[in-house]
Every structure is written in C-alpha cells, then in structure tokens.
Amino acid sequence: MTDIQATDAASGAGGTAEDDAFRVIEARELCLTFETNDGPVHALSNVDLTVDRGEFVSFIGPSGCGKTTLLRVIADLEKATAGTISVNGMSPEEARRKRAYGYVFQAAALYPWRTIAGNVALPLEIMGLDKAERAERIARNLELVNLSGFERKFPWQLSGGMQQRASIARALAVEPDLLLMDEPFGALDEIVRDHLNEQLNQLWDRTNKTVIFVTHSIPEAVFLSTKIVVMSPRPGRVHDVIDCNLPRERTLDIRETPEFLEIAHRVRDGLRAGHAYDDE
Amino acid sequence: MSRSVPLTVLAGGIALLAGLAIQIISADAVWSPSYGLAAALLAGSYLLAIVWRHGAAAAFLLLATVHLAAIPLIGHIGHGEGEMGPAYWALLISGWLAAWTSVTRLTAAARAVPPSAKQAINLLIPFVFGVWLILIWEAVTRGAGVPQVLLPAPSAVWAKLIASLPILWADFVQTFMKAVIAGYVLGCGIGFGTAILVDRSPFLKRGLMPVGNMVSALPIIGVAPIMVMWFGFDWQSKAAVVVIMTFFPMLVNTLEGLSASSAMQRDLMRTYAASYSQTLLKLRLVEALPFIFNALKINSTLALIGAIVSEFFGTPIVGMGFRISTEVGRMNVDMVWAEIAVAALAGSAFYGSLVLIERTLTFWHPSNR
Amino acid sequence: MTMNDVLKSKTFAVGTVVLVLIAIWYFSAVMLNAPFQRELDERAKLSPTTGQFIEATLNQKRPVLPAPHQVAVEIWNTTVEKRITSKRSLVYHGGITLSSTMLGFVMGTVLGVTLAAAIIHVESLERSLMPWIITSQTIPILAIAPMVIVVLNAVGISGLIPKALISTYLSFFPVTVGVVKGLRSPDPMQLDLMRTYSASSFQTFWKLRWPSSIPFLFTSMKIAIAASLVGAIVGELPTGAVAGLGARLLAGSYYGQTVQIWSALLSAAFLAAMLVTIVGFADKAVRRRMGIMQ
C-alpha cells in the first residue's frame, strides 16, 4: 500500500497541479476528418486530452479508433481539422521543428545501409551536432537499451527485438523530454515483448521522460502506464480515462496481483462499453 | 543418387564405343595418335564417373580428365581438316556428355562445400559450358569444313583478332571511348537531373511517367539517320543517339526510385524536421540506388547498340559499326566476328563493372545480402 | 467529375505533357529551319514579316526538323491516300516490319518459355546456361544483324526468316528471365502443399508453377514485343533498302528526305505503342479470367 501511495505522489504531482509548466500535451475538442471516396471518415471527434510531465500514457482501443491518428497529430504528421492542441505549450509544428519529441514506429524503420551506430547518428546528423557529441550520445543511448557492442552491426544482422531497441535508442538520442511510441512492440512475439516491456518500464523510471504509447494489448497498457486512455471507433473518440496507480518500478510478476487485474478489468469494461467488441 | 548408371554416362559410353567401332570398320577413317589418346582419356573418365561418384574431389578429377581429353580431340582435326566422319562426331558427342556429367557432379558437390568454394564452383560451371561451346564450334567448323563465309572457326577469329589489333583498337576508341562514353554520361546525367527536378512537381510526374515509359519501349534507334544529318558523320551524332536512348530509362527509373522509400521512413525524417535536401540525400537517393543502377545497366547495353547501329547510317572510315557493315559487304566474316568479340568484351566489361559498383554501394539491399 | 478531379487526373497530366512536347517541337522546328530559310529569302531578295517567315520555316520541302503537321500530312498521304500494295505506302512497309516482328516475337516467346521450364527443372542447366544468357544481353547483339542477314542471304535464306531470327534473339531474353522468376514465384508453403499431395513435377508445373508465372510472362512479353520490333527494323537496314520501316529510314537518310524519315519513325513508334497496348489488353483479359486483378 505504501508503494502505491508513493507512486501517487510521484506521478500525480503534475496531475493535480494546475501549473502549465508541467503540461506536455493539451488538446481541446480535437477533430480530424479524412475525405474519402465513400464520404468523410471521422478519425477523431471532439478529443480532449491532457498529459503532464513524467506521465506514461497509453492509448488503447480497437483498430479504427484513431489512437494512431491522435499520436500522429501530436507529432505533426497529421493536421487536425478542428480544435486546439499544444505540445510543450507550442503548436505541434513548432514542437516538431524544435525536435521536442522522439517517435518510435510500429516497425523499427532502420536504414539497412547504415550500421546500428549510423542509424542512431541519423537524427543527430540532421540536427547538425558535431562528431564528438554524436559519438557520446550514440554510446550512451545504445547502452541505455542494452545494445552496447552492436554498434558496427547492420540492422538486418539483428533480431526483431534488437532492431526495435535500436530504434528506441535512435529516438532517445535526440534527447527529447517526450517519447511518442506507436505500437512499437506490435510485431514482436510475446516473450520478446514482455522482456522489452520490462526494459521500457525501467527506462522510463530512470529517465523521467513523458511517454505516450499506443497499443492494443490490455496487459501491456496496464503494465506500463500511469494513465490509460480508452478510445472507441466510428467516430474515433476518447471513451474513458483510467488512472493506473501501480508502483513506478514494476516487474512482470505484478501482472498476477489483484490490483493489476482490477485495472485490466476496468479497461476491458471500458472497451466493451465503447463497442470495441461489437462485430464489424 | 540412384545405384544405376546415370543416363548421360550411359549415352556417352555408348557414343564412345560406337565411335571406336566405326573408326575400326570404316575404310576412309582418319587415323592419328590423337584419336587414340582422346578415346582412351574419355574411356578413363567414364570409368571414373561410374566408380567414384560422390564428393567434390571426384567431380574435379572427372573435370580434369575430360578437359585433358579435349586437347587431343581438337588436335585430331589437324590430321584431316573438313574430312571428319561419324567416328569423330561420336567421339565429340561422347566428350560433350562426359563434360556434362562432370558439371552435374560439380553442381551436386556444390551443395556440400563451404560458401567460398561454392562461389568458385558457381563461376567454374558456366566457364566449362563456355569452353565446350567454343570447342564444339571449333570442331564442327573445322572438322566438317564449314565455309569461312558462313561461320569462321574460333581459332580463325582469334588469329584475325591478333593480326588486326591496331584497327580494332582504333575502332574501339572511335565508337566506345568517344561516342558511347560521351553519350552515356550525358544521357544518364541529364535523365537523372531531370528526374530530380520533375520529382518536385507531382503534376509533371503524373504526366511524364506514362510518356517516359512509352518512349522507353519505342524503337528510338530510328533517330540515328536524323542525328547523323544534324551532327555530322563523326562520333558526335552517335553520342547524340546514345543520349536520347539512355535519357528515358534513366528518367523513369530514377523517378520510380525516388518514390521507393516507405511512408514510415519519410515520416521518420519529418519527425526530425529534416529539410528537403537532407531527406533527399540521406534517404530517398539511397533508396533509389537499386533503381538508378538498373537504369545504368540497361543503358550500358543500349549505349553500345545505339553507337554501333548509328554508324550504319554513315561514319568516317573508322568505328565498330562501320567496320562491321563494310567487312560484311566484303564477306570478311572473320573480321566481323573479331569486331563482335571486341564489342562483346567491351559490353560485358562495362556491364560487369557496373554490377561490381552496384554490389559495393547497395550491399544492404535484400537481393545482395 | 469536378474541376479539381480533372486537374488531378492522369489523362489531363499526360495530355498537358504531350501538348507541351508538341509546342517544343514546333518551336525547335522554327529555330532549326530558320537559318536555311533566311538564306533562301536572301537569295530571292525577299523580306518577309515575322509571321510569313515562321510559316515558311514550318513548310520547307527538306527541313532540318519537319513540323508535326508536315509529318502528319506525309503519314496521311502514304497510308490512306496510297494503295496498300504500293511500294510507297507506309502500310505496306509497316506490314512487312510487323510480320517479321510477330514471327520473331512468337519464336522468341516459345524459346524463352521452353528455356525457362528447362532451367528450373535441371539445376546444372541453370548453373551453366543462366550466366551466359545474361552475358549474351550485355553484348551489343544488334551489331551482328547485318552479318546474319548477309550470311543467311549467301546460303539462300532471305526475306522474313533472317529478320525474324534477329527479333527472336532480342525477345527471348526478357521472356526467359521473367518466366524463370515467375515459375519460382510460388512460395515454399504452396510447394510443400503439392508435396503433401505427392504431386509429380509435371503436375506441380501445370497446376502451380505455370499459373503463377502468367503475370510475369505478360510483363516480359511487353518488353519482348518492343525489342522484337527494334530487331526487325534494324534487320531491315542492310537489305539494300527494299522494304520495311527500317528500309524507309535508310532510304530517307540517303536522299535527305527528312519528312519521310520522321514519318517512318512515328509509324514505328505508333506500331510499338499499339503492340505493347495489345499485349497489355491480353494481359488484363487473362488476369481477369484467372481472377488475379490488381
């Protein structure tokens, strides 16, 4: 119990404070409509969202609920058609230009012609950092994802899990306060995924970054998050926001505790109420 | 592998025995020690093929014996040019079947050797095929006395080639070093530059891609007479034809290559707020490399064809195409073949060096790993 | 369709590009023909207005670059206005080129498919033959076209066959390479399925490999038929300029008849476009019947 209270104090610090300095994402009545041949598709409809510094927020929902779209709007990879959104108090475009976030895709998207070190160096070269600084950041971030010693390997010589870790190192190398992750472990098998979940939890705990994480796995969302945003499709909207006040440091064993199961149960209820389990 | 004797060995053995039988009973057969030696070596190789069937060592020994037999097999023709009868042809077929058996054994052996040896075997097999192609060509043209005009023997072509090196070199310089290189560099360069420019306008791209694809399929070589009229008889007109022929494949392939990068990778560059030129240099051009090399390879052949064929429409009195068309007129077919050998060598070397550069630059591509 | 859709359509874009190309053609015609026209006018002591001058450059008898309408008129005169049997009819010459193109294409395709089927069944054949097939294409084979024609003529074979042989040579390669790829395209799971049925290699070929290779075959055939036409045209160059589009090109270049060269060239281009389109339609029809639509 003490553990949970301690976490409350830590992760909830931003949540209760009204101070804007702690606010990383602020979205109000966000809408995004795609025009298609079959008429308009409402990918996002009146989405409200706040994310505070240091939080680990998961978006969960069935496919078509707009969770990836919402992440892409935050990253300025899509433009909202209505509503307001700010990232670190700026527009998403300004935030992107200031390289305020690191983005991890569903696939590792590493360049096959660059070594692992070269791939991590890519954003640093684009930012125009000098060689010494690049080398220092590459070493530090590969260490962080336990890939030291693989600098000179090419991506295709590594396993899928290692590739995805390299892509996380690449996102971290930018040294952003905000990490956006779009189903980063979706293509991996469950054993590797469990392992990476644990590592990601430790990483977040150690570095105190804000993470927004898209997933369709309930255990993954509950295991990693401080806050779970349950979304539902047609139109894509936020159905419920569930606080997940487990201790900050977590091991896989936590998934058998009653607290964990209780939160997972609430997420599943939320998904059901949001028609996630209806037949198409 | 089955216990029974393979079909090629059986057929080859029968051919060998039949050849020997005819040689002995027929009255007008040409006799020479070479014939006996070739027959003995072939008999030896068939025995070897039956007794020792497995492994790389057996295959190599068989290969060596068969090629040893090839020397007297060709040498025997010297004892009666144009007078070879069925006894000789049976022996030749038997030799070819023995070579085929050795290649089959090598192929089988290649599965069970380390990768480096495998690579060597993979080079050796087509080489053996080429050697036998030339051996049979030589044996048939000389043994059966095929008229020089119809098809000269490889040895005659080789002799002509050695004797006319200065002329061949001058032709090579005129056609390859001047017309092909100049036209190829200009055509590919302009095609590439145009593609980079066009790529910035989706409208132009939509309009130009189908037109470019269509033009690539057209018989562009037909512009040769026009270019000769515009740019004169010398190499400039040939270079102009080459420019036109190489431009479109390069344009189309580069445009296609520039859109080869996945949406995810372009998004990644966007999250870094990378500029247009950074995305172009660090991502899109690298992804386009296999496509660009595809065009460079297609164009290497097109350029040589363009330059040679344009010379049929008028040249100064030097050049590979000029030499081919005039020597054909004079029925000097051996010279034509010598010129074609040079063209083949130049073409393969050009293509081969492009492949080598491509392998180095696109080592990461799934097809090269 | 809204205005926006029209602007975004491929047809509009292609149409615009083609119009721009024609405009550039006209402009180049004026520029290239101007020097000679100026000379003519000087000799005739004429001082035409700019309009008259431009008009004259576009209607010379032997222009450096004929204007599009001159070529169009020439094509009209030599196709519609002439009897098909006439030696000056482009339809006659086109027909001759087309027949050797088609013969060569059919022979090349049959040869290509046969080689491909042999190559995927005999491993040592692939190892020994495939490298040479690829090398053979790096050789500027069109260079031997005149020799093939002349040599075959010397032994009494003339007319269609020698030209068709050149076309065959040019068209078998894309078919071989494409069909080998196609016959190899079934994934290991599908091949394993055939193994579980204990299917013979003959059955595997006809029921799995061959149908899978059809799309590849048609893609290769589009390349092959264009190559075949080039082979036929080049094959017509050394026959002493008797008949065929290649002969028209050569005759035009001997006598400086630029309009004739361009009309032969455009007819060849039209023929190529038509042939590729026909193969494209056949491709679509077969795909639809087989249920593989893209």
Briefly characterize the structure:
The complex is a heterotrimer of chains A (280), B (369) and C (294). Chain A is of the alpha/beta class.
Average pLDDT over all residues of chain A: 86
Q: Could you state the CATH homologous superfamily of the largest domain in chain A?
A: P-loop containing nucleotide triphosphate hydrolases
What is the CATH level 1 assignment of the largest domain in chain A? Alpha Beta
- Beta-strand content estimate of chain A: 15-25%
Q: Output the helix-strand order of chain C.
A: HHHHHHHHHHHH
Quote the beta fraction of chain C. under 5%
Q: Would you state the CATH class of the largest domain in chain C?
A: Mainly Alpha
- Total separate domains of chain C: 2
| Morphology of chain C | elongated
Quote the CATH topology of the largest domain in chain C: MetI-like fold
Please give the order of strands in the largest beta sheet of chain A.
5-6-7-3-8-9
Overview of this protein structure:
The complex is a heterotrimer of chains A (280), B (369) and C (294). By secondary structure, chain A is an alpha/beta fold. Chain A is 39% helix and 24% strand. Chain A has 2 domains: 2-100 and 177-273, Rossmann fold (3-Layer(aba) Sandwich), CATH 3.40.50.300; 111-175, no CATH class. In chain A, the strands form 2 sheets. In chain A, strands 5-6-7-3-8-9 form a 6-stranded mixed β-sheet, with helices on both faces. In chain A, α4 crosses α5 (131-144), α5 packs across α6 and α8 (218-224) packs across α9. Chain A is globular and about 50 Å long. Chain B has 369 residues and is an all-alpha fold. Chain B folds into 2 domains: 7-146; 162-361, Orthogonal Bundle (MetI-like fold), CATH 1.10.3720. Helix content of chain B is 78%, strand content 0%. Chain B is built from 14 helices and no strands. In chain B, α7 (165-198) packs parallel to α10, α9 (224-231) crosses α10 and α13 runs antiparallel to α14 (333-361). Chain C is mostly helical. Chain C folds into 2 domains: 3-64, no CATH class; 90-290, MetI-like fold, CATH 1.10.3720.10. Helices cover 78% and strands 0% of the residues of chain C. Chain C has helices at residues 3-8, 10-43, 50-57, 68-79, 90-121, 123-138, 145-154, 160-183, 188-196, 201-235, 245-255, 258-290. In chain C, α5 packs across α11 (245-255), α10 (201-235) runs antiparallel to α12 (258-290) and α11 (245-255) runs antiparallel to α12 (258-290). Chain C is elongated and about 90 Å long. Classes of the chains: A alpha/beta (280), B mainly alpha (369), C mainly alpha (294). Chains in contact: A-B, B-C. At the B-C interface, α4, α5, α8, α9 and α12 of B face α2, α6, α7, α10 and α11 of C.
